[in-house]
Amino acid sequence: MLKHIDVSATSVDFYIFLIDEQGAQNHNYDFGSVYFGQLKEIKAYLVNNTPQKLPFKIKFLSGKQTADEEIPNLQTPNELGIEQLERVMNCYPSEGFVDSYSQIPLRFTCKSRVTDNMVFWTRNYCMKGENTHDEIPESQFDPITYSYTCIFEFNGQTDLSPYVHISAKGICPTVKISSHALNFGECKVNEKKDIAVILDNKNEDHPVEFSFSSVANFKAAPKGGTLLPRDTHPVDFVFEPKGLGKFTSYMDLELFGAYKIPIKLVGAALSIGEKRVLSQKKIFIITNP
């Protein structure tokens, strides 16, 4: 008697791919606009949908490259060192192992180098008054587009590798300060004077981190913070002389710790005021005999 045996099977694709934080398969990651010198990161996951534990190593190529194109020849150690120094994007970890049917987290980072010309332009923009008509060479600092291809090598092979494309657009901060030269006049020792200024973030989409350097006899409050897009923030500069004399100092407004805008502070202490002494409270402790 002829017997019939029903056989069914499920087809499974064995391959490796990346997913984003939402769980969607994604091989294109765009940082969008990023300030020169600002650190920004994107999280993703490397998924190993094969029955083997695989060692991997990541290789970066400048520009957008596809799997159909020939991979450039190996670099010399000197060329590799220069490329790594100039590269503005990285991935962590850059090598390791991914177990079978599992995934590991990845961090793509972007941080470009800040040149002297970028600092000069940002400082001029910040210090330029709203009502002046001086020309600033903005054309020298048009956004710079960065593009890289991230290739994953498994056991030294790239036939299983997803080609991941990463891009960003570098821009300069556009922050204004209402005054960059403050004259406090005369203030007695043991007293203080303050002048309020306004910080204005002209960027419509991105916040800016700011801080102020420390100088003797002067201080800024707050000492640092974040300017939201299209936001203004008041800052109080305080002159509090510790001794007699005429004082001229420069305090830096720092953006992301990379762009320094000098603020001139002038004040004089020609006499001594009364020293304020904080009253101390007496505390009595009563114990039961």
Describe the model.
The protein has 289 residues and is mainly β. It folds into 2 domains: 15-117 and 143-171, Immunoglobulins (Immunoglobulin-like); 175-269, Immunoglobulins (Immunoglobulin-like, Sandwich), CATH 2.60.40. Helices cover 8% and strands 45% of the residues. It has helices spanning 77-86, 116-127, and strands at 15-20, 28-35, 40-49, 54-62, 89-92, 95-98, 102-110, 144-154, 163-171, 175-177, 181-186, 193-201, 208-212, 218-221, 224-227, 232-239, 245-255, 259-269. Strands 2-9-8-4-6 form a 5-stranded mixed beta sheet, with no helix packed on it. A 5-stranded mixed beta sheet has the order 11-18-17-13-15. It has a 4-stranded antiparallel beta sheet with strand order 1-3-7-5, with no helix packed on it. A hairpin with an 8-residue loop joins strand 8 (144-154) and strand 9 (163-171). The longest helix has 12 residues, at 116-127. The N and C termini lie far apart (108 Å). The model is unreliable at 7-14, 136-140 and 283-287 (pLDDT under 50).
